[in-house]
Amino acid sequence: MKNKLKVAIGTDAFPPTTDGISNVAQNYASQINDKLGEAVVITPKNPNQLDYKYNYEIFRYKSWWVPSKEGYSVGWPFKDELHQAIIDMNFDILHSHAPLATSYYFRRVTEKKKIPVVLTYHTKYEYDVDKRVPTKPGKDFSYRFLLNNINAADEVWVTSEGTVESLRKIGYTGDYIVMPNGCDLPIMNVSDGDIAMIKRKHNVPDNVPILLYCGRMIWYKNIKLILDACAKMKNDGKEFKLIMLGFGADERAIKRYAFKSGLKNDIIWTGKILERQEIQGYYGIADILLFPSVFDTNGLVVREAAACATPSLLIHGSCAAEGITDGETGFLCMESAHSIASTLEKIMDNKALLRAVGKKAQTDIYISWDDAVKKAYDRYKIVIENFNRKNK
Could you report the per-residue pLDDT of 184-227, keeping only the tens digit for each? Predict the structure, then answer.
């Protein structure tokens, strides 16, 4: 088998759309093109795309544009000439990062030419189906569509063992490989000067504990638990600043709830930040990352925080908490505002403990995208070998 593979990185989300899967697709494409082989991103068209910024090829196919805060396009991969365009690129393997439109696109391609397909199942799609699809026939169709796309792959990857429960809910009964995501932020200690600059920007006193949430502003990330926990701590007389970094569909509702909870002067809203170095500065000034999501299947932000030796507070039993030892590489609590608040009240003034746990997280749970994609690339070769053996 040739050493340098040509890989199609399929994703329904790519900049200007920003979410976890968009981040993953960018890092796969960058790492493969820089160090391993050739990768082309396959993704729906977006009227705000700025593809000239990337030093690798991005193939955009027809889409329907849905104006929204998060900027998603809906892929429409039904034209025969689109399928031929992928075939003509002579890919060695197709790697889809969601069982949605681009996975269906790859299915149509492989009907014309046999090419091995890997699917990474990143997120709990049943949440969106159950929330957004109002009728039972619509839900049944959505689950069938997802399952058919998953079953069409030659190999299914998940980013954590906990993700498998979601796969089974969709109806998938086959085998899977755990292939963890990496982190694109380098291991570093944010300088005292940068920390002081960010604190000055937001008028944060030196002696006040800083809590951080980083991610999309969506209720199902358990953001309400964060706000309720903070309201409880404030009522208990605890001082703190909560930095809310990100944007999303529920942002306005979340702000209204925070103000009603009496937290108007305790929260810093950064809005949308895309510059990775700037984001790393916020991890650097935080004493702890709050990530109570039980929706996320991996939680890239936990490793991003670890890159800056910042520990995370996570929900016991969640996918994000996989591999975390309570009090050693992070902190675990139950899925309730009371548990979050009581855990924080015990630890947030103990700077020595927070630093020690953050340092341990940095050495034990951090994984670079360099290492993560190298592992995936080696697995591509095994998938191709198995595919060729099966199809002889």
Answer: 899 988 888 888 888 888 988 888 999 999 998 999 899 999 99
pTM of the model: 0.83
Q: Are 299 and 291 in contact (CB under 8 A)?
A: yes
CA distance 291 to 225: 10
Write down how long the chain is.
Answer: 392
DSSP bridge pairs for 7:
39, 93
Q: Give the span between the Cα atoms of 247 and 91, in whole angstroms.
A: 36
pLDDT in tens, 11-46: 999 998 878 899 899 999 999 999 999 999 999 999
DSSP E strands, the chain: 6-10, 38-44, 58-61, 63-65, 73-75, 93-96, 117-121, 155-158, 177-178, 210-214, 241-245, 267-271, 288-291, 312-315, 331-333
- The Cα 116–Cα 106 span in angstroms is 10
The 8 Å CB, 24+ separation contacts for 168-172 are 169/126, 170/99, 170/125, 170/126, 170/143, 170/146, 171/143, 171/147, 172/147
Within 8 A by CB and 6+ apart from 158, the residues are 120, 121, 164, 167, 176, 177, 178, 179, 297
Please give the structure tokens belonging to residue 105: 């696109």
In the chain, count H helices and then E strands.
Answer: 14, 15
Residue among 355, 335, 239 at smallest CA distance from 290? 335
